[in-house]
Queue: 3 jobs
Job 1
Amino acid sequence: MTQKVGIAITGASGRMGQMLIQTIAQSDVAQVVGAVEREGHDWIGRDVGQAMGGADLGVVTTSDPLEAFANAQAVIDFTAPAATVAFAGIAAQARAVHVIGTTGMTDDDIAALEPASRHAVIVRAGNMSLGVNLLTQLTKKVAAALDEDFDIEVIEAHHNQKVDAPSGTALMLGQAAADGRGVDLKTVSDSGRDGITGARKRGDIGFSAIRGGDIVGEHDVLFAAPGERIILRHMATDRRIFARGAIKAALWGQDKAPGQYDMLDVLGI
């Protein structure tokens, strides 16, 4: 690759937005060429580097995604479902790879990405980490090997500012477990325990969410049977792992045909 890939960042002032900008600024193969924030945000019209308290990066924050995406070969998007759906159409117009790390997306939101994916590459994942995607594959294999004598519980923990639960990663792991067992996650999911709920239903896949402090992300998949337990665990201690994964996806997608992909495609696993 002789020329750096230009990447636009949506939600530039957010936790992941700033981490992405910092990580890309240190890259030899990518550069930030656009930054988007919501209209009225105090970063609008300011250089993103200066807004973050550092040196100018030569990229002015805008509320107009068309302007930000115009010179981009990729867009990295960790925002909100409605915004992500809107960004998908604009990224497709620019023929930019759209890397989506947004969580909390409904089936309708995901279906709404289909028109854009006919014209551009979309890489969407509940988690961009290599380790988590390996954990997903392990979860599927273990679930396939064990019968319903083993109850499956997905336990996740995140910082106290996270707005959705279960996390996108937890749902990804639950889906992997359901796929391993050959069942529909919607029919076996249990994430609403409160009060007198009765005994656990055989075959259910349970979800529990913890919110506190500055926890980056912790996920356990528990397989529990009488007399024994198996626990698969991933702990994230640095948000850079998600930034590096997203950048890897943006670079990977440069020569791919339009369509929807995930991190397993990017990682070849």
Job 2
Amino acid sequence: MAYITSAALADKGFLVLDSYNQELDPQEWLDIEYNDWKSSGDTRFAPLASAKGEIECNGFWNHVPPRTDKDGVWIDEQTAKAPNLTRRAQEPGANVGRCRVIELQPTPYGECLYNLHQDDNNRLNPDGTGWVVRGFFNLTDDKDSYFVLRENRTDPSVEYRIALPAGAQLIVDTQRLWHATTHNGTEPRYCLITSWTSGPELDAYIEKYHGTQDVENYPVDQAILDAGYEEQARRDAARAAYYAAKGQQEKIAMSEA
């Protein structure tokens, strides 16, 4: 199928934008309402825009009528408490689908690798329209944490590790890349996640903030990497055995979050 996509994302599937001075903004993510919605890891989500403007996190295709991850409805009681976060999500001028803040508890590298997943952003997306990607704005100062991106979930030969200090800004084709976060802090990590529709508006935003794929991998000791690979393999084997014992096919790691 032919979709409108961003050429800047074609090579590696992600971009890092200019860092944002997060310290200038209040910590609005502490004031909004969260749902115990599980994604990759121990998470909660606070939606700012949802399918019908309600405080819920379900995929838009699970509503009536079902639709793709576009035309999100802003939740007045949430956006009133988080005007700066709302402004940032709306700044590109691209169509917004789901928009919410994720709260992630500490997650070591091995668990992160087990949690690697692809998003189902473009289910029901009509041919010839904009491909849905996601923006990630790191809100807390998680200098020891990093976003993990892979082309192949179990192949570490192509693994991008993006540092996550406060103000880090990424755009990721999360339906293409397997992704999850290694969070080495002791407090929760908070990040604003917005579904954007690709097109000229998003392209202009990428250019304005100098989106680049040429970033150094966050450095991780080889012993930690090796232990992570072993933990992922161990957990994957345990999951496969669980489904085999139930006579079921193993589920693919695809997230609706």
Job 3
Amino acid sequence: MGAKPPFDFDADAPEPADERGFFADQPARRTAASGERRFAPKPALKDADEAHYHGHRDRLRSRYRDNGDTALADYELLELLLFRLIPRRDTKPIAKALLDRFGTLSGVLGAPPALLQEVKGIGEAVALDLKLVSTIAHRMLKSELRGKKVLSSWSQVIEYCHAAMASETREQFRILFLDKRNALIADEVQQTGTIDHTPVYPREVVKRALELSATAVILVHNHPSGDPTPSRADIDMTKTIIDTAKPLGVSVHDHIIIGRDGHASLRGLRLI
């Protein structure tokens, strides 16, 4: 047998299952008997350190309980959420790092898990929990639209589409299918493309509308570049869908383009 390696892991040292435990590199220590260096588990926080961040958490929760979200900055709201996801760590630096990276709360919650994990302190479990919050928020917005007359709830339509698509890193082509009262029947992502292109097939759009007995549709897609200005290809594609759908009794109310900081309506711009 060969010589024992100079570094070995302490067999008795528990390892954290994920990033909810301690994240810092574990310091090496020497055993008294052999002088070998072994990695020890991170020591418990000192009482003063524990009191510091636990006291901060209590104060933040009290402010939220007494005054609601208006009393808190965006990073503090994110901290409140991270308290539950990372129970044994000061989460303020992580919350600020997330906002620095993704710009807004919407950007944080809409970011892909792989990108979230590039922020120090965010591992797979926390990234998936953040995406769960995002999914719940989208479902809430969608439930507010279902059954309503969409054209009279236009601000909610824009809010929902922005929440669902603004932070996507690839183009998505989404369709809102409406009944004869212009109430929402279904909302479906028909195609997902690249960073600057999504293939759209007008016949498939109309076919799906007929399958759902929809009499009107609203087309929606996002521009990952952030600029919602419609391109010539966007305009031409929309006109092709209109020409294909009209003889079959399906109206195209609008085509909305979503960017990170706004949206564009082809109907509002009088491009269709």
